[in-house]
Structures are given as C-alpha cells and as structure tokens.
Write a structure and sequence with these properties.
The chain is of the alpha/beta class and 338 residues long. It has a single domain, classed as 3-Layer(aba) Sandwich (D-Maltodextrin-Binding Protein, domain 2). The chain has 13 helices and 11 strands. The longest helix has 36 residues. The chain is globular, with a radius of gyration of 25 Å. Bound molecules: (2S)-2-hydroxybutanedioic acid. The site of (2S)-2-hydroxybutanedioic acid has 9 residues, from loops.
C-alpha cells in the first residue's frame, strides 16, 4: 500500500516536472522568437490623437503583422524632443522619426519651402508636389546625411493664434512675439510683419504661451486643438499662410541592415500608413476646427481675399531673401502644382 502510494506520488511529481519543463521550453522559444524580431523605435513629438500619432500606430499594426518586427511608438516627446530626435536617428538610437520638415533646415535649407507664405494653392497641390519629381528629389536630399526619406505625411495649413488682440491686417502684428519651429524663413516672415520671433521646441510651447514668454504661435488646427492652446490664447486668425508637413525618416545604417524582403515589408507598411495619414489629416483638422470654435475660448477671424492680398504684399521680403536659398526650381514647382 505504502509503496504504491510512493510510486503514485513519484509518477505525479515526474509528470509535473515534465509539464513545467515543457512550459519552460515553450516560453524559451517564444522569448527567442521575440528576441529575433527586428526592433523598431518610432519617436515623435505630438499627441497620439493627431494624424502623425495615428499613422505611426497604423504603421506599427501593419508591419507587426509580418511577425518579423516589433515596433514601439513613443509620442509627445516622451523619448526625444525636436533636436534630440534628429541626433538620435543619426546615431540609430531610434529607427523612425517624422519631423515637421522645417526642422530639417540645418541639413537642407530647401525644406523651408513649406514656410514660404501662401505658396501652395491647396492641400491637394501640396500633396501633388510631394508625390511629384521635385518632392521626391527633396526627400532624397538627406541621404548624404545618413537619413532616408520613406514618405511625406502632410498635416495641413498653419493659422495664427495670440493672446493680445485680433490679427486682421499685417499692421496688427507689430510688437508681438511669436514662437517659431526653426529656420530663417519663419523669422523673416514675422520680421516682415513687424513682429519678433523665438525658436522653441514643440514640447515647450504651451508653457511659453501660458507664461507669456511669447504672445502667439502658428500651427495647424489639429495641433492647436490637441495641445490645448485655446486655454492660453484668446484670438485665432484663419490665415492658411503656410504649411506644416512631415517627412518620415529612417537612418541608412538601420535600413542597410535589413534584407531586401524586410525592406519591402517596411516600405509596404509605410505606404499603407501614409495613405491613412492623408485621409486623417483632412478629417482631424476639420474636426479640430469645430472643437476650437465650439470651445468658445477663441475669438475667430478669417482673412478675406483683400486681407490675404495685403499679407502677401507685406511678406514679399521673405521671397526676396529666400527664393535663392530654397531654390527657384522648388518654389516654381510648388507654385505651379495643382
Ligand atoms: C511644431 O513644432 O509646431 C510642429 O512641428 C509639431 C509637429 O510635429 O506637428
């Protein structure tokens, strides 16, 4: 009886050991599979609910379906701010970023094209420029810097907000100070309007508006909405005077480490995410405009055709100074795009 019981206990213990060992093995395999996946970090500075934030998540979803990649998205400057993300990309500490192209001015001044006042006729004209030969050429100019453009992610037109007064004419800007993303074109734009400017990382803007380091800023409806600038600004001028668009970048070191098949999976996922981003940009900017209007916190003014003509005239010095810096060919291609 006793020996039988001992036997039973032994058999049970052995079975248990086998089960535990098998589970351990399975876990190990899973671990190995995870370890062998290509790890991709995607860092950006905006909220998750923006066109860029959502498209980054779409890219993750599509690419991870292949089973070969693990993509981690870090929104809202969690990992890196504006300047740091560019350095981190070059050092391969992050494999994807999607900066507003203005922030690439230090590498290729022609990216300031988007800041040239009233240049593109419409959103569609901007999309067609990006998809056309000049847009593709511009995207590829970063290769010598070890950065590879994978797609254009347009956000939309910029509009002015400020805390001091309604801005209806160029004269109204005199003496005010605005935050800029970077680059000489934006400084020149505000100078032409008699205003001052200060370059500042995106993550610092709300605080700077709140403590009045700057009086105003320019951005898309969606960024203004998702950053809650209406809490610290009083006036909004619907001006569509320039654009804010992104280029998705990886680094050549990471890219070259992938097989052609993996590069194809990556490019295909990027194509899908890029198409998604464009529909979202339209949709989310329109929604944000409604949200801002309904908030009751901002007084709105929309430029008339005559106002716009006055602004174009006042901002002519920007073209005088920057057409050659950016390149006449780029400016013409953008202006003629339909
Ligand atoms: C800004 O700095 O205002 C924007 O470039 C932020 C962004 O990425 O949309």
């Amino acid at each position: 009886m006793k020996t039988g019981l001992i036997k039973k206990v032994l058999v049970l213990a052995m079975s248990l050991l086998l089960v535990v060992a098998a589970a351990g093995c399975g876990g190990g395999e899973k671990k190995d599979a995870a370890a062998s996946k290509i790890s991709v970090k995607f860092s950006h500075v905006v909220a998750e609910t923006t066109p860029k934030g959502q498209a980054a998540l779409k890219f993750k979803e599509v690419l991870e379906k292949s089973g070969q990649f693990e993509v981690k998205v870090f929104p809202s400057s969690q990992l890196y701010g504006d300047k740091e993300e560019l350095e981190a990309l070059k050092a391969n500490n992050v494999q994807l970023i999607a900066p507003s192209v203005t922030k690439l001015v230090g590498f290729v001044p022609a990216f300031q094209l988007v800041d040239m006042p009233f240049l593109f006729k419409s959103d569609q004209a901007a999309y067609n420029f990006y998809d056309g030969p000049k847009g593709q050429e511009l995207m590829n100019t970063l290769k010598p810097q070890g950065m590879l453009g994978l797609g254009w992610w347009p956000n939309g037109s910029k509009h002015f907000t400020n805390s001091k007064k309604p801005l209806k004419t160029p004269d109204d800007f005199k003496g005010l100070k605005f935050r800029t993303q970077s680059g000489g074109v934006l400084d020149e734009q505000f100078k032409a309007l008699g205003a001052g400017s200060q370059t500042m990382a995106f993550g610092e803007v709300y605080q700077a508006l709140n403590n009045k380091t700057v009086d105003g800023q320019e951005n898309t409806y969606n960024n203004i909405d998702t950053q809650k600038y209406a809490e610290v600004q009083k006036y909004m001028t619907v001006s569509s005077h320039g654009r804010l668009d992104y280029v998705v970048l990886t680094n050549t070191k990471f890219w070259d480490s992938m097989t052609p098949d993996q590069q194809k999976l990556f490019s295909d996922a990027m194509k899908e995410a890029s198409a998604y981003e464009r529909t979202l940009a339209d949709e989310l900017n329109a929604k944000s405009l409604e949200t801002l209007k309904n908030s009751g916190k901002l007084e709105f003014y929309t430029l008339t055709d005559a106002d716009r003509a006055a602004f174009e005239k006042a901002m002519q010095p920007v073209y005088d100074k920057y057409t050659d810096v950016i390149g006449k060919d780029y400016i013409e291609a953008a202006r003629n795009s339909k």
